[in-house]
Amino acid sequence: MSAPLPEQTSYLLGLVGAGIGASLTPAMQEREGRESGLLLSYRIIDAEKTGLRAEDLPEVLAWARRLGFDGLNVTHPFKQAVVPLLDDLSDDAADLGAVNTVVFRDGKALGRNTDWSGYGRAFRQALPDAVEDRVVLVGAGGAGVAVGYGLLEQGAEHVAVLDADRDRADACAVRLAKRFGDDRVSAVEDLERALADAQGLVNATPIGMLGHPGTAVPGRLVHDGLWVSDVVYFPLETELVRLARSRGCRVVPGGGMAVHQAVGAFEYFTGRVPDADRMSRHFAQLTSGEPTTAEQSA
């Protein structure tokens, strides 16, 4: 991907998805832009408010380019639908069949994916000694495929994929096996048996987020011999995370993935390496309810 012109200091970005009104991405990106000496504006295009459908994506991309957008983040339910509309895909986005970052550059729309790398960065930061562990991944949707890719890319010995929809688990395992080999990934149906052969557990389902209470894993299966990770970050302390902490498990909450996928997207959009620690601190402020610097000076 060609770098932006060195003199470019202003960027217009957006997020396309459904039910994204509470997203923290605009605040994180705009704040990091200011801290990096850039004028960065970030807009939300919420399908629930605009009536946007997958078949409208070609028009959305066309108008974003006409209006001078430098790029778009893309989230549920459009990460797969946007793929065939793009001029170029990174190898990882092609492997995943999903894009969460679209960069407009040199007259082309470039598709990238920072979900898997964002998860991997957050994981290595929290549990650097566990990157080669055997893992059970619950949830085989878009988030699950990205997490599985991140785990395997960083060295997981094996990832066992379980989903309420067996066909979806099979499809996830097949996609990951094409990149990493049949011996490192499998679809499973018996969670208890799979956990008996694993050191880690990841929830990549929506269960645990606001409006979807509960856990995707029976509490009796969570024990201190497992590390536990959750991709949900609304709330940061899901029922699964809270249960795992109470059982003495090492925990990787969902906030790290949220921050680091934004870190990767910022670099794609601007060609500049953001301060990941600074973005993490800002995310912590946003989720704690503490006033940010901008709010304090308002």
Shape: globular
Task: Specify the structural class.
Answer: alpha/beta
Number of helices: 12
- Strand coverage percent: 15-25%
Q: Biggest sheet: strands, sense, closure?
A: 6 strands, mixed
Beta strands, count: 12
- The largest sheet has its strands arranged as 2-1-3-5-6-4
Average pLDDT: 93
Distance, first to last CA: 38 Å
Report the radius of gyration as a whole number of Å.
19 Å
**SSE sequence, one letter per element:** EHEHHEEHEEHEHEHEHEEHEHHH
- Indicate the percent of residues in helices: 25-40%
- Low-pLDDT regions: 293-298
What does this structure look like?
It is a single chain. The chain is α/β, with parallel strands linked by helices. The protein has twelve helices and twelve strands. The strands form two sheets. It has a six-stranded mixed β-sheet with strand order 2-1-3-5-6-4, sandwiched between helices. The longest helix is centred in the last third of the chain and has 16 residues.
Short description:
The protein contains twelve helices and twelve strands. With 298 residues, it is of the alpha/beta class.
